[in-house]
Amino acid sequence: MDSSHTPSLPPDVSVVVLCAEWCTQCRAFREVADSLPAESLRWVDIEDEGLDADELEITAFPSVAILRPAGVLRYLGPVRADLEGFLAAVGQLHRLPERAVPETLRGVLSP
């Protein structure tokens, strides 16, 4: 991959893909995500983890959340299953409001 297209995220950031096994767009996005140099990328199948999409304010899959250690997240929301769509969403990260990580999601993400 051309490094000029690599998303530049601070090293303290984690990328969380909120997905569902039945979702064909999630499976397609997995190929895109696997090509990213994100060591902190995490897949969370909300059904396997017993999470509620409404509580997490997820309206479509896959939804991507960017987390910081201080417990702040920004939802990129649903992303297209292609590298350009993901990079475009990451490029808008600074425009998104910060939100507290819901306790149910924090429990799934804790080590």
Task: Describe the SSE topology.
Layout: E1 14-19, H1 24-34, E2 41-45, E3 63-67, E4 72-78, H2 83-91, E5 99-100, H3 103-109
Parallel strand pairs: 1-2
Antiparallel strand pairs: 1-3, 3-4, 4-5
Provide the CATH top-level class: Alpha Beta
Lateral strand order in the biggest sheet: 2-1-3-4-5
The CATH architecture designation is: 3-Layer(aba) Sandwich
Mean of pLDDT: 75
CATH topology, by name, is Glutaredoxin
Q: Oligomeric state of the chains?
A: single chain
Rg of Cα set: 13 Å
Distance between the termini: 30 Å
DSSP helix fraction = 10-25%
**What structural class should be given to the helix and strand makeup?**
alpha+beta
Describe the structure.
This is Thioredoxin domain-containing protein. Strands 2-1-3-4-5 form a 5-stranded mixed beta sheet, with no helix packed on it. It starts with 13 loop residues before the first strand and ends with a helix. The protein has helices at residues 24-34, 83-91, 103-109; strands at residues 14-19, 41-45, 63-67, 72-78, 99-100. With 111 residues, the chain is of the alpha+beta class. The protein has one domain (10-104): Glutaredoxin (3-Layer(aba) Sandwich). Helix content is 24%, strand content 23%. Helix 1 (24-34) links the parallel strand 1 (14-19) and strand 2 (41-45). The longest helix is centred in the first third of the chain and has 11 residues, at 24-34.
